[in-house]
Amino acid sequence: MTAIATLQQSFTLPCGVTIPNRIVKSAMSENNADEGGRPSERIIKLYETWGKGETGILISGNVMVDSHALGEEGNVIVEDERYLAELSRWAEAAQAHGSHLWMQINHPGRQAPSFNKEVVSPSDVELPMPGLKGMFRKPRPLSEAEIWELIEAFGRTALLAKKAGWKGVQIHGAHGYLVSQFLSPRTNLRTDQWGGSIENRARFALEIYRNMRAKVGAGFPIGIKINSADFQRGAFTEEESLQVIRMLADEGMDMIEVSGGTYERAAMMGRSQKRSTQEREAYFAEFIVKARAVTNAPLLLTGGFRTVEVMAKAIENKELDFIGIARPFAIYPYLTKEILAGKITETRSGNVNTGIKAIDRIGFMDIAWHTENMRRMGLGKKPKPNLSPLRVFMKFAWENRKNMG
After folding, report:
1. How far apart are CA 57 and CA 394, in angstroms?
2. In the chain, where are the structural domains located?
3. Alpha-carbon distance 38 to 41, whole Å?
4. How far apart are CA 402 and CA 405, in angstroms?
5. pLDDT tens track for 127-159
6. Element (H, E) at 395
7. Are strands 23-25 and 57-59 parallel, antiparallel or unpaired?
8. 3-350 in CATH: which number?
9. Crossing angle of helices 203-216 and 144-163, rounded to 10°
């Protein structure tokens, strides 16, 4: 079987839904909603463009479950039915050419910038970001009642996605956001049923899944994005991640996406890793083999894939089931269609280095650069692979000036 034929294969998830091919556009934050978190015409246009590329699954950027807890001021918010019409149009536009649109559902926890009036987390462990002084404040620990309210909020948002015609949802349990904060002993210092052992720290993620499943039913796909590790001393480890993956698989999770890192250690961007890891394809390739050894649940790996041959080989070797690609989609709008037509055999993400080490070693620069190109596509413009990283950072700094000290 050729590499293209391998990637063209369909795949049926445990819930019974069949995905048309093995390529997934993994989540990238669009940060481009209208006031109040309303899905904008720009976001709908962006996904209409991506939908023409016939990718198996298009996963949205993080959609927030609480209007009082945003990761970025331009996040889409889905906490009730007020934007159901816009969400339906978004789904219709993205899925017109056969792609499945999944909503990534998230809460930032302590990674909520200081424009939020209150910041919450499992414990009162502040996010240390010396290069962005004043942007994050010390969080308040969640109460037991608030934890259950958030579990209900995640489930409610999943049900709204289904009502709006989306074909799946993904829990964001990676990259240092709230679910990830519960998993990590570095940020979860609780001594109740939500902290301590890995079983307790995983309880929040498991209860979110159970709540979602009860609301959306057995035939609707639910996935999760989880770190292979946090890449920090005293934080979430590979061994713990494998344990949680087993727990999630036993619950019936339809897809487990593996990534890694946090705002402090941006491993998902290829940063904070050994040069040998950065230079090879698939940053977390070694871990995905370990994950496959402990579960038969569908696995999606994101981070570092560049060549079609390596993508196909990973599937042929049964190391994983889906190839996750994110940043290249901000440069190649119709990436999947061009890969499957043999027009593209290798992808690249943009050059996002400003030359200022304090800026370049954190994950914000990557996010801001690719977000700017997504904004261009949302306006009907072509992406610019040679977009100036320094100019993008200056724009980011200006837009976030009130949150910085």
Report:
1. 33
2. 3-350
3. 9
4. 8
5. 987 666 678 999 999 999 999 999 999 999 999
6. helix 389-399
7. parallel
8. 3.20.20.70
9. 40
